[in-house]
Specification:
By secondary structure, the protein is mainly beta. It is built from no helices and 6 strands. The strands form 3 sheets. A two-stranded antiparallel sheet has the order 1-2. A two-stranded antiparallel ribbon has the order 3-4. A two-stranded antiparallel ribbon has the order 5-6.
Amino acid sequence: MTDHNRSLEEYIGVAFHQGPLVPQVGMEMRTVLTLIYFPHPMYDKLAPGVTFTVREGPQIVGYGTVRRRLDC
């Protein structure tokens, strides 16, 4: 999302903790993410129902929706 040519996206550090070793292109998957810098306030917005994109550098390689948080 942009606002007058400024990016409004936030980049937060996560790592895939559980899930398929080799994701299948075009297939839905469930995974557990580790919040690398938890309990940093940047993770406060990660609540059930929030959507996100997964990036490798500038490339979007996936997207999803937070289903639940295990730290709550």
